[in-house]
């Protein structure tokens, strides 16, 4: 399921998938130009933003005249076309992209969960240190003020990661 990604500017992106390569990779048959126009309409793609026309330099038109046309698609547009394709390879791409997205979300979730656990440990340590500092207030105010300053920062980090985890849990 590999499609070459080429350096080509389309809209704000600097990498693109060539529509003819996607067409062949999806195992489509029939006229390429008709297929591409149907995909543009079906997916609501915008010229200049989602794709742009490019002309094939290699093996131009053997009968002379205008060289064959190809289209550079943004990565998102290529994914969109692959996701809505009804061909067997399109369904395989769709399953692959869904699995890849699920894996990415799990990685982010695990990383955030590990980060949250670490911050919870640090916050608990800061709270213990603060309690000890109150008990030993006679030792000086500098330790106490550092602990007091660290606690809100740690609590803010914990709350931020908890809210990110909640968003991830809602996506599943």
Automatic annotation (TrEMBL):
Where is each AntA/AntB antirepressor domain found?
17-85
What protein name does the entry list?
Phage anti-repressor protein
Name the lineage: Bacteria, Pseudomonadati, Pseudomonadota, Betaproteobacteria, Burkholderiales
């Amino acid at each position: 399921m590999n499609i070459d990604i080429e350096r080509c500017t389309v809209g704000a992106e600097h990498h693109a998938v060539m529509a003819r390569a996607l067409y062949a990779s999806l195992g489509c048959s029939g006229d390429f130009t008709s297929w591409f126009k149907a995909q543009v309409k079906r997916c609501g793609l915008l010229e200049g933003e989602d794709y742009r026309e490019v002309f094939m330099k290699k093996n131009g038109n053997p009968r002379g005249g205008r060289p064959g046309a190809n289209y550079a698609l943004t990565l998102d547009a290529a994914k969109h076309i692959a996701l809505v394709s009804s061909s067997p390879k399109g369904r395989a791409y769709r399953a692959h992209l869904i699995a890849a997205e699920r894996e990415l979300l799990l990685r982010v979730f695990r990383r955030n969960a590990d980060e949250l656990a670490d911050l919870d440990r640090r916050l608990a340590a800061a709270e213990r240190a603060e309690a000890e500092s109150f008990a030993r207030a006679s030792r000086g105010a500098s330790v106490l003020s550092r602990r007091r300053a660290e606690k809100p920062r740690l609590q803010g980090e914990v709350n931020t990661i908890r809210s990110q985890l909640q968003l991830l849990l809602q996506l599943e």
